[in-house]
Specification:
Blueprint: E1 7-13, E2 16-23, E3 26-34, H1 37-47, E4 52-53, H2 58-71, H3 90-100, E5 108-109, H4 110-116, H5 124-132, E6 145-146, H6 160-170
Parallel strand pairs: 1-4, 5-6
Antiparallel strand pairs: 1-2, 2-3
Helix pairs in contact: 4-5
GO molecular function: methylated-DNA-[protein]-cysteine S-methyltransferase activity
Organism: Rhizobium redzepovicii
Pfam families: DNA_binding_1 (PF01035)
Length: 187
Amino acid sequence: MAQTTYHYLIFETAGGFCGIAWRDAGIARFQLPTKSAEATERLLRRRLPDAEPGAPTPNVLETVAAVKRYFQGEETDFSGVELDLAGQDAFFRDIYAAARRVGWGRTTTYGALAKELGAGPEAARDVGQAMAKNPVALIIPCHRVLAAGGKIGGFSAPGGSSSKARMLELEGVSLAPPPPAQQSLGL
């Protein structure tokens, strides 16, 4: 019989307190860092009110260790993490699979992901909605998906687009405009 109860763990990283929730099928929720364990737990339990604290499985412990490395600025790959995306729309699952292929230090846009999935430019909004509803932010790297023109776009995690920019900076991605091609004469 499949486990239906979600278990969770709150843990500290260099970026703050994160939360992770899982069932037998895999990791179902991930809460990006906040300043306190209480705030993280509150946000995580808002989405999974019946979740209970639990002893992490070996896979969960590996993911927690990877998250800690990530927030220390170490190149980290979450593409092999087993996820439990039960209840997600099939198109959103396709979007999430495409987003998981965007590696460390790289970015894409909502429109480019829509095009990769064979959808027209109007599907860029669907991609944006999927990123906003991402249940496992960081593991599905929605922070690497930008608005048209490489603009930062929105981010529904604590800290909003500032958090998104900080995460990209950890990966060596600069969203600052390039320096001018010509030097000023200083006049």
